[in-house]
């Protein structure tokens, strides 16, 4: 098979790595890809939002399967474009990708179909939002309705903070048009867990749980980022939690989308909060999480191509997912200053170490090749250093050991990814 992967980050590197392990795959292309992905795939200089060019490339190269990694093209309707041209493609159509593309849509869906989530109101007028806040309980959560690179959520402790947040999202347009509409949501407390799933429109298969660390600094301080590290599985995702979610959240979401005439084929990422009243949905994403994919996919025993094809063909009921009985931790190496301002073009050394050690991975997120063929930084999140272990404690030690193999100027990382689990 010839496979095309659309995207350029650590998630797409993890997908490419999994696809490269399939005995069914002969050739992988990635558009636009990055320097690390270029070691296992042929990178193609076509942007993820250039749908017609991507489809033409897939036709020209007789691509057997295209995997869409990123949220923007999915919400923009890339799958519809590919399907209209008779191309096999993995991901939800535009009418289903709205599950991630509009927080107001997903909240209304959960309300209609009684899927557990936080109480909320939606607004398209900042004055109405400000009036609502006057009577609301603090802390409170403000969410830009549309896509905002995983950063369009503000947790406000006081009324003053919340008012400033409304201005930031709806008037100053910090997140662009994503802030034209806004969801104001009750603040939930508990443990956060991420659960990825494969869906074929009617059947859902749940992957191993994970937990992300969104804040830039140790102790969950600092600004929200796209993710500074993650681990899998989550010890808080118990058998009882799993049973509840399967009954009231997972299949219920797939059935709700089908009932709305929006059959969902692809990945549903369930962001869950384990509250005192039980698990509730924080958010949906319509694709693999980044960096969650970097700790879940290395533990999956199945051939990823078999599973993806079953989703496309509607035969997922014939697949049982299997995961290794171990743990995996990913520590993101970022450029100091991320997520605000940071320098690029710093030469990276030490990557050859990963070829010498089994169970260690280095997923490239923001890298490029210099003119003399060296790896250099090319983004805020640069690398996802990932390692397995027999349990989370060992996996964490291994990941931090591997993080020291890598050097570049302005290297920055959190030092407490999974630490609370170590100490639990």
Question: How would you sum up this structure, described in words?
Answer:
- The chain has 424 residues and is an alpha+beta fold.
- It folds into 4 domains: 2-93, Rossmann fold; 119-186, Dna Ligase, domain 1; 191-318, D-amino Acid Aminotransferase, Chain A, domain 1 (2-Layer Sandwich), CATH 3.30.470; 327-423, Phosphoribosylglycinamide synthetase, C-terminal domain (Glycinamide Ribonucleotide Synthetase, Chain A, domain 4).
- The chain has 13 helices and 22 strands.
- The chain has helices at 10-20, 51-60, 71-76, 78-84, 94-101, 103-112, 126-133, 159-171, 239-259, 292-296, 304-313, 392-403, 419-423, and strands at residues 2-7, 27-32, 42-43, 65-68, 89-90, 120-123, 140-144, 153-156, 182-186, 191-200, 204-212, 215-217, 221-224, 229-232, 265-275, 278-285, 327-335, 360-364, 367-369, 375-377, 381-389, 411-412.
- The strands form 5 sheets. Strands 10, 11, 14, 15, 16, 17, 18, 21 and 22 form a 9-stranded antiparallel β-sheet that branches.
- Strand 10 (191-200) and strand 11 form a beta hairpin.
- The protein is globular, with a radius of gyration of 21 Å.
- The mean pLDDT is 96.
